[in-house]
């Protein structure tokens, strides 16, 4: 059997890069898909992954665009074969209190964080169920579980991610396909570096483990759920937040 093929959206982002590295270390072939970013960003990513001898590659996509996702999946399947693992890590923030949030801030975020997951899953799920194997891991956020000031759009979308996960998990459970959510807490990535220093310091003070999460902490959870022998875990949400939000 050839090595499992994984597609990671947002694959050259802060968490996506580490998820690609982790899956490649686990012996997967990995395609990082992301916006047709500046060439230097893609080059830096590929040189970072050079030690995997071509097992990690890049392909452009706009996950908010259904046709872009269809074209991507067609191309990947033609050049690399069937997609076994899909990780949805593409995401954006458009923070503002609701009083000040524009319809565009709301809709832009929904198009990437929620429609994006539909657009990619819709392209791969049929093949996965027909072949009797698939692993889908969707990235939510602790802020989808707790709500966050200035993030009605982000919190709504991230809560929606897990609703989608649970529903799709039911639809695919008998066909060897698992669908799970990983909900990171605050991690040491550019997304969190953009938060004001005094707010960041308060966040760290509130994390029981006493530090921000590392991208490797999140990648380990994704890799666990993407494994062949994780077939009895589906529709689950795995929080990786240093104890910042505990629930039962
Ligand atoms: P990031 O901004 O570093 O990476 C996100 C990636 O998504 C970027 O590379 C970006 O180019 C890509 N992207 C944005 N719009 C896209 C589109 N339309 N099509 C394709 N790609 C697109 O963010 P990150 O920290 O790596 O976060 C990854 C995921 O984890 C996101 O869904 C985020 O909401 C979630 N998350 C992150 C944290 C954190 O602390 N960093 C915490 C909780 C949840």
List the helices and strands and how they pair.
Elements: E1 5-9, H1 14-25, E2 29-34, H2 39-48, E3 56-60, H3 66-80, E4 85-88, H4 103-131, E5 134-139, H5 142-146, H6 152-172, E6 177-184, H7 190-193, H8 197-205, H9 215-226, E7 237-240
This protein binds nicotinamide-adenine-dinucleotide (NAD).
Residues 9-10, 12-16, 34-35, 37, 61-64, 89-92, 112, 139, 141, 184, 186-187, 189-192 line the site of nicotinamide-adenine-dinucleotide.
Tally of individual helices:
9
What is the approximate shape? globular
Q: Which structural class should the secondary elements be placed in?
A: alpha/beta
The count of β-strands is 7
Percent helix among the residues? 40-55%
| Largest sheet properties | 7 strands, parallel
**Largest beta sheet: what is the strand line-up?**
3-2-1-4-5-6-7
CATH architecture tag: 3-Layer(aba) Sandwich
Order of helices and strands: EHEHEHEHEHHEHHHE
N- and C-termini, Cα separation: 39 Å
Uncertain stretches of 5 or more adjacent residues: none
How many separate domains make up the residues?
Answer: 1
Bound molecules: nicotinamide-adenine-dinucleotide
CATH topology: Rossmann fold
* Mean pLDDT figure: 96
Q: Give the percentage of residues in beta strands.
A: 15-25%
CATH evolutionary superfamily: NAD(P)-binding Rossmann-like Domain
């Amino acid at each position: 059997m050839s090595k499992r093929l994984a597609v990671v959206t947002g694959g050259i982002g802060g968490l996506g890069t580490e998820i690609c590295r982790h899956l490649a270390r686990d012996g997967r072939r990995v395609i990082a898909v992301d916006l047709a970013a500046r060439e230097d960003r893609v080059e830096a990513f590929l040189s970072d992954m050079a030690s995997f001898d071509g097992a990690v590659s890049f392909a452009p996509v706009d996950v908010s665009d259904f046709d872009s996702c269809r074209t991507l999946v067609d191309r990947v399947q033609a050049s690399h074969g069937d997609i076994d693992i899909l990780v949805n890590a593409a995401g954006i923030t458009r923070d503002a209190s609701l009083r000040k949030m524009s319809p565009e801030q709301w809709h832009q975020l929904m198009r990437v964080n929620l429609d994006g997951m539909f657009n990619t899953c819709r392209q791969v799920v049929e093949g996965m169920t027909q072949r009797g194997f698939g692993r889908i891991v969707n990235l939510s956020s602790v802020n989808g579980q707790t709500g966050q000031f200035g993030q009605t759009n982000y919190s709504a979308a991230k809560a929606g991610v897990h609703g989608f996960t649970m529903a799709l998990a039911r639809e695919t459970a008998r066909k060897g396909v698992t669908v799970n959510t990983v909900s990171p807490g605050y991690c040491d990535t550019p997304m969190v570096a953009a938060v004001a220093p005094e707010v960041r310091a308060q966040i760290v003070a509130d994390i029981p483990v006493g530090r921000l999460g590392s991208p490797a902490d999140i990648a380990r959870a994704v890799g666990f759920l993407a494994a062949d022998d994780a077939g009895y875990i589906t529709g689950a949400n795995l929080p990786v937040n240093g104890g910042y939000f505990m629930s039962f």
